[in-house]
Amino acid sequence: MSTEIIDALRNRMECEEDILRVVNLVPYGDRFRYLIETPFKTFPRFVIGTTDAAFDDVRLELRCGLLTTAERYWNNPSDET
How many beta carbons lie within 10 A of that of residue 70, not counting itself? Predict the structure, then answer.
């Protein structure tokens, strides 16, 4: 998949008010899987989900307060956190 598509999606996501930064963004079948940091100082600080290329069909997988928890789930999504 083209890095231009991923870069464009990352830029679009980072324009949203409830996204502080995109920590990770990768192709995931016909969708994209993302790990974002929100601007919220409490729950949910980090969110993992999938979206389409237009960022219109968002599906959440995990919401949590710690980056270490989010990264552990990101690397092993079948493990319970």
Answer: 24
pLDDT, position 41:
83
User: In sequence order, what are the residues at sequence separation of 6 or more whose Cβ sits closer than 8 angstroms to the Cβ of residue 34?
Assistant: 13, 22, 24, 25, 26, 48, 49, 50, 51
The amino acid at residue 18 is: D
Alpha-carbon span 10 to 12, nearest angstrom: 5
pLDDT confidence of residue 11: 96
Task: Name residues of the chain where pLDDT drops below 70.
Answer: 1, 79-81
Of 6, 39, 41, 4, give the one whose Cα is nearest residue 24: 6
